[in-house]
Amino acid sequence: MTNVKQNLEQIQQRMQSASNRANRKLEDITLIAVTKEVSVNRTNEVIENRVMHLGENRPEGLKKKLDAISSDVQWHYIGSLQTRKVKSVINHIKYLHSLDRMSLADEIEKRATSTKDCFVQVNVSQEESKHGLPYDEVEAFIDQLHNHEKIRVIGLMTMAPNTEDDTIIRNVFQKLKQLQSKIAAKQIVNAPCTELSMGMSGDYEIAIEEGATFIRIGTALVGKEKEGIE
Ligand SMILES: *Cc1c(COP(=O)(O)O)cnc(C)c1O
């Protein structure tokens, strides 16, 4: 049985150790509980343990949670977002982690009723299967967003490749950090780009060591209910 409270305590300890190793402050890292694989009940358990940043990756999953969960949760949308789904998602979330193309930015500009905090998703590892902008197109993309008043690029997001090799993972996170720092130094008005969304259940400690300010954790915190794996 998944014990959310115990999992959380262990994750928080590991976050603390990783922060210490990197000379960083734990308060500078926000834990997002990814609830995409679990029920409303399990999601409520997370909230009872005072984790108030929650992440979903599909419009249907988000809607189900929104309808059932009443509290001041900050919703993160972490999945790739189809343009035609923007309308039903964008005004319910605080953060979008998957901005990866101009057609999506245009639709957000049209549909959002207030400015959205967005991460540009970057495909650092160049894997065919992964979403996100190619690394060397990110700066030009952000430059082109200057007319989009509803979009505030607060940072960059990536997913590390699925590998056991920590060196490869660390290298991906370092590259994202380099790009983020470079963009932040430009001091673009609607793209402060101070944040880094990186690190999941298997690699969040490396991500923290390499500068993550938002980590997105699903299975290590809440398990996985849909597939019956406990
Ligand atoms: C599912 C998902 C996560 C969480 O993955 P876990 O390995 O279960 O922690 C994080 N980020 C994104 C974009 C995801 O789709």
Please write the string of helix (H) and strand (E) elements: HEHEHEHEHEEHEHEHEH
Helix/strand/pairing class, anyone? alpha/beta
Bound molecule kinds, no repeats:
pyridoxal-5'-phosphate
β-sheet strand percentage: 15-25%
What number of domains? Answer: 1
Walk me through the structure.
The chain has 230 residues and is of the alpha/beta class. The chain has a single domain, classed as Alpha-Beta Barrel (TIM Barrel). It is built from nine helices and nine strands. It has helices at 4-21, 40-48, 59-68, 86-89, 102-111, 138-143, 166-185, 204-209, 219-222; strands spanning 30-34, 53-56, 74-77, 95-99, 116-123, 133-134, 151-157, 195-197, 214-217. Strands 1, 2, 3, 4, 5, 6, 7, 8 and 9 form a nine-stranded parallel sheet that branches. The model has no long low-confidence stretch (mean pLDDT 95). The modification N6-(pyridoxal phosphate)lysine is found at residue 36. Pyridoxal 5'-phosphate (PLP)-binding protein, which is involved in PLP homeostasis.
Question: How would you briefly describe this protein structure?
Answer:
The protein has helices at 4-21, 40-48, 59-68, 86-89, 102-111, 138-143, 166-185, 204-209, 219-222, and strands spanning 30-34, 53-56, 74-77, 95-99, 116-123, 133-134, 151-157, 195-197, 214-217.
